[in-house]
Amino acid sequence: MSEHITTVAGVAVDTRHWIGGERVASTETFTDVSPIDGSVLGEIARGTTPEAAAAVAAAKAAFPAWAATPPAERARILHTIADGVERRLEELAVVETADNGALLRSHRRGVMPRVAHNFRFFADWLLRLGHEDFDTRGHTNHVSWDPAGPCVLITPWNAPLMLATWKVAPALAAGDTVVLKPAEWSPLTASLLADIAAEAGLPAGVLNVVQGYGSEIGDALTSHPDVRRISFTGSVPTARRIASSAAANLTPLSLELGGKSPLLVFADADLDLAVDLAVEQYDNAGQVCLAATRILVEETVAEEFTRRFVDKASRLRQGDPRDETTDVGPNIHLRQLEKIDGFVRRALAAGARAVIGGHRGEGRYYAPTLLTDVAQDSEIVQEEVFGPVLTLQTFIDEDEAVRLANDTRFGLAATVATGDAERAGRVTAQLVAGTVWVNCFFVRDLQAPFGGSRHSGVGREGGTWSFDFYCDLKNTVTAPKGWKDHG
User: What residues are labeled active site?
Assistant: First the structure.
């Protein structure tokens, strides 16, 4: 077997870049380690400025032909990619579990089927984009959705393939070409996606995958003058760097960033439902940007809510994510684990109390944690931890609940548990968030706009909003007369 092939859970994965329809090696590599047990998964090609330039050049060269490809043909190829994802669903699931530590049962039943759905949804949405003409004093206005050009898509490690295809699928559907830069802590399924896309007949250069470690390749991609769109999911500091890098070329950005989302539990809520929603925030070991990590409970039911929460959370099983009975897996990296532990230790030193958890486990595992006695202006309440750590605060009335909920620099999501429909309407109207769930969590329809407010992001993607971003919209206005008779 080639030195550039690594075998993960019995699946062969090429560790080189995918540029212009070919595998490309680098002179340097970086080590990819499994968060499950610290084992080495492979040595990954480490791209720098030359690989970034080559990938953008390949995307630029492939763009005219792909942009001119009829929408129906682009849609057909995207559906064929979805077919390939479904055929290799088990391989994708086991590789991604090894690479990022998320539950294998979730990858099999939810995540990888959603990857295929991403391609099918945007393929179908492309064919139903509105092209209605309208009249202005006898002049005809015709709006067209023109492909924008090469796109750089930079994706995170917490749901690598699903979050990558949220971007790749609409960009390809729109007629753009793509340079995908996956997160260095979980790069493997992006390489498999390149194989699947090539097998589906996607022309060379339309999708390119470059891997890297550190800021050099990211800076080279986001500052490139031939890049027409940049979409990034990740941290606020990295987003600032990307925005600065893109500024010279005025490259449009879509940024989906961090969150510090609240879960508001009112006394009239179904408490069992509210507890279920709260415990669900430990999903993916708390490594979910949308997670409602700040639990705000009406004072009169706080004691009973806490008792039920502890009872349910204490039954969660933490361990190997490949085990069907595991509920909470490891955190992605030792560096992330140290960050999580630092947040908790500082909170405890400042007077917080750990109702459950509050400590590291073995390896890369952190115990599901609930902290109380936390101040609103404290670090643990204001900053994103990105681990299985929740805080609990109480409120007296609606006004205080809304004030506490909105009192951070973030605005990605919010969840409300209440039995009063009128209250739900009043509260959700006042919450600063890109998505609000009422008596539910993480119900995500690709037709809906997705993104954050404040420091949680810039722009929206999903449905028509994705095509708004990945296309240049053109309005052609035609006078009612002036045509020559060529008869």
Answer: 256, 289
